[in-house]
Automatic annotation (TrEMBL):
The keyword Membrane applies. Residues 7-49 form the TadE-like domain. It comes from Streptomyces albireticuli. Keywords: Membrane, Transmembrane, Transmembrane helix. NCBIfam families: TadE_Rv3655c. This is TadE-like domain-containing protein. The chain crosses the membrane at residues 15-36.
Length: 114
């Protein structure tokens, strides 16, 4: 007679399935955060291009906000011939999983060239 293994598979599944769910949720959160980071960088580039063309500050901020994730803060500063655009946002996630994401771009103002 072999001893019965009844219940072992159920106990193992009860431990493994929640672990797999948490791992999957962590992967999804990481992808969402990475996508928001890429959006911040793209938004900063769009704002820097607009500022380099000598667009008004409102147009520069509007260009960056159009490409930025929801709730992002855009700041534009000028340092000599360079225009710096910074986009900052908090990632989506519960409690301690929210992280600060930012993107920054610098462009040479066109009126200073040539």
């Amino acid at each position: 007679m072999r001893p019965s293994d009844g219940g072992y598979a159920t106990a193992e599944a009860a431990v493994v399935l929640p672990t797999l769910m948490l791992f999957g949720m962590g992967l999804i959160w990481g992808l969402v955060a990475a996508a928001a980071q890429i959006q911040c960088v793209d938004a900063a580039r769009a704002g820097a291009r607009a500022a380099a063309r000598s667009d008004p500050a409102s147009a520069t901020v509007a260009a960056a906000e159009a490409a930025a994730p929801e709730g992002a803060r855009v700041s534009v500063s000028r340092e000599g011939d360079l225009v710096r655009v910074k986009v900052v946002v908090r990632s989506a996630g519960p409690g301690p999983l929210t992280v600060r994401l930012s993107g920054e771009a610098v462009a040479l103002a066109e009126e200073t060239v040539g």
